[in-house]
């Protein structure tokens, strides 16, 4: 009888040990409580820093709207700015963007950044640049008419990688297009910011297509623009 009780006691101790071990492994992934807490603190600190940075950009650009194509759309796609501060989409050209003026006016921005041309360069027209800049001027006039107090800044078409140019030779015209865009800005008395040097200085932040950009590029872009 005594032997039977001893066996039952041993089995109970073994079961309890297994249970404690399983709970410990499941709850801490093999880490001590102190190690788990440190890991969580590191994760929470990083998340808090990202949140603070995003809030700072949202505050800085709270009265601004970025109007543009899929490159501009990255600002909201990567959650750097709120969707209300970005009015952009894939395939947008200076002609198509005129349909967005009503939406833009409804947002009542004090500063409008326009970044178009990357798709315009590929437009199947006899002279894509002239065709685009003609519509670009119309877009500026429409915004000035509806938002006469708004500040307007044109952003240059961002350069692409050598591989992207090889795949699509028409991207060779980006430099020429930007010259025309700068001249247009002067004619229409709006501001112009050339992003070429900024992109060339962060060529490691291209996306895989060599045209668009990774999330890390957009905070750098906003920092670059805030003092201009």
Automatic annotation (TrEMBL):
Which SUPFAM superfamilies does this chain map to? Answer: SGNH hydrolase
User: Locations of Polar residues compositional bias?
Assistant: 25-34
Keywords, A to Z, come to:
Signal
- One Pfam family assigned to this protein is Lipase_GDSL_2
Per the database record, which ranges form the SGNH hydrolase-type esterase domain?
Answer: 66-218
- Kindly give the PROSITE patterns that the UniProt entry links to this protein: PROKAR_LIPOPROTEIN
InterPro entries in alphabetical order: Ester_Hydrolysis_Enzymes, SGNH_hydro, SGNH_hydro_sf
Q: Where do Low complexity bias regions lie?
A: 37-51
Q: Where is this region: Disordered?
A: 25-53
Q: Secretion signal: which residues?
A: 1-24
The domain of life for this entry's organism is Bacteria
Which protein is depicted? Lysophospholipase
Species name for this entry? Paenibacillus rhizovicinus
